[in-house]
Amino acid sequence: MKYVDEFRNGDTASALARLIRAEVKPGRNYRLMEFCGGHTHAIFRFGVNDLMPENVRFIHGPGCPVCVLPAGRIESAIRLAEEERVILCTYADLMRVPAGSRDSLHKAKARGADIRMIYSATDVLAIAQANPERQVVFFAIGFETTTPPTAAVLKIAKAMQLNNFTVFCNHVQTPPAMMHILSAGEAGIDGILGPSHVSAIIGSRAYADCCDKYRVPLVIAGFEPVDVIQSVLMLVRQINAGEAEVENQYTRAVSQTGNQKAQALMQEVFEQRPMFEWRGLGSLPESAVQIRSEYAAFDAEKRFNMKEIATADIKGCICPAVLRGVNNPDECKLFGTACTPEDPKGACMVSSEGACAAYYSYGRYRETTGTT
Amino acid sequence: MCLAVPARVESLNPAASTAMIDLDGIRKEVSTQLLDEVAVGDYVLVHVGFALERIDAVEAAKTLALFAELRAQDAEG
Amino acid sequence: MSRLDIKHGIIEMGHGSGGRASATLIEELFIRHFDNSLLSQGNDQAAFNVPAGRMVISTDAHVITPLFFPGGDIGSLSVHGTINDVAMSGASPLYLAASFIIEEGFPLADLEAIVISMARASKAAGVPVVTGDTKVVERGKGDGVFITTTGIGIVPADVDISGDRARAGDLIIVSGSIGDHGIAILSSREGLEFGTAMESDSAALHTLVAAMVADVPGIRCLRDPTRGGLATTLNELARQSGVGMRIKETAIPVKAEVKGACELLGLDPLYIANEGKLVCIVAPEDAERLLTIMQKHPLAQNAAIIGTVCTDAQQMVVMATAFGGKRVVDWLAGEQLPRIC
To answer: Looking at the predicted structure, is the pLDDT value of residue A367 above 70?
Structure first.
């Protein structure tokens, strides 16, 4: 695969890793937060950790949209499907995420709710057209990467006057979450691996404030393992030199200004939401978007007069601390015992990008003995 | 977050704002609504059925050249 | 003259009532196409003589969406699936039984196409469908058609193949590229359609197995990695035998299209279903010889040794990645679904 295989070359990775080992200062630690679940997944899937020196540590960030979605939002969606009898469409990633009281979209579907997994946002339009007598709701999640497609279908729906289609908008924004983690300061971060595809949309300039304000270097890194390792090298060099710049390793897809057409589309359809609750991070001001009043007819929260549902955290689950980079998954009492991918208690155990699932699936071989 | 893969644009349907992309023999129609310009032969990042951004071939080549340089540096090391 | 309007007709409740309509359906569709003397006797069972030795029996319920897919359909699949389950004991399959649960309103033309495909698969394999049953359920209570097939077979005298026989040091062979079936199915699934020349690998593996056991009767384990893919089968065998496994990603045959589709949808080829592949565990001294025999068979030309069995109290399957790292190849949690993140 072009633009994939070259960036998965093990020999290049080993060479870059040796440079990292040669350049890290023995006396200090390099705590690097990979903001995105995509990076977490790549680090574990390819075993990038194994190539790193002891004092380079990856701290897993909150950049997994299903992990940061509060259980209450999932319960709200389940209510739409069960009480309003809508056709609820969503990306498959969300199906197994625990809502409150051991529920999930998957279980609601099994109980008879009409919940459909879609691949593309445009699929929802087709479902709405095919079911004119039913209300069809798109349960939309994701960061800035996934927001423009939702904006695009909202625009099409409006043009088509598709009056049985609405969006339950849960799109969140990367820079505010990053600022929040840095301002809390509890994760002790020395450098940040910046998002790949979010940055393709919002551009590298979007992180300038983060770096300036908190004096932390950030390297926008591609999602392939050699991209990650080169980005670590770039961060190590910045840290050693005492710099705190935004650098861009993923230049093949990310520009300084990003995809302006996509940005304009988001601007047209969405506006800043004053406050949004993140699982783990709490309620953060101006950290998410909502549908503009011009598109109010397509806003599920308005059409169905949806109310916020508060849900208690799961007892013993430290997902919130994991999402803030304060704890590692294996420091959780539930990890691997009460909480496993088969029976997840916390959201981080569900998504293959969740730090807990990645630790569980890929990390355990270190504990095995007697290998041949 | 945000699984997106680079795939080659095989053909365009400007009227529908869609493109047929190919990824090693897998063909899929994706929306090009988010792109200002796109041409057959371009590689685009595909996410949830949308082309998010074009891959800049020149920049990709630069990154690979840098990898080669760093490997040389390591070999001298 | 035919009393069934195959072209325009649909399945009605009467076709499952046991009355004349049922008899017509059975005669004109099943007996006609399956066409063998045991079935034609019209009994509720088939009686036959059995040779001496160990017999095996296996049953498999087939449900699939869509019913017709590139490279096959539920009919051929229901023949291949059960023949393979019987063959994975090293046995030569003898006979099949088939039971159909059909949804009211199902087009007779589709049913005939499925039965013809099934008959063709069973004739090609030399394993006739000798008895069967048909039930009709009300519209909305089935998904078109479900087919359960049961097969019996005879195990050669010196063969003892079982999932609990893998020992440290044994080698692991896979008979060809993985993930073909699952990707072919996904490509034609509603809402996910993508274009590909990929076809399901659905095939009956008993002649391959016969060639294998004829030369290496001491094969330890055989299993077809269907649902859950190669990863699940290796984990099952590791647990049954109380061993670990170490495999190499670079050794596992995967077609470019399967890799491409997996990247696009966020899936892992190790967990994608196969319907015409087998995993074999064999003592190291027999491995190369067995591999050569397999590669001579048309269904296993790309067979490869993918790893070794080892001592591991935790019974883990660990893969050396193409990238140079290592990772656990775990059991599948839930079903594998396309993902966006």
So the answer is: no
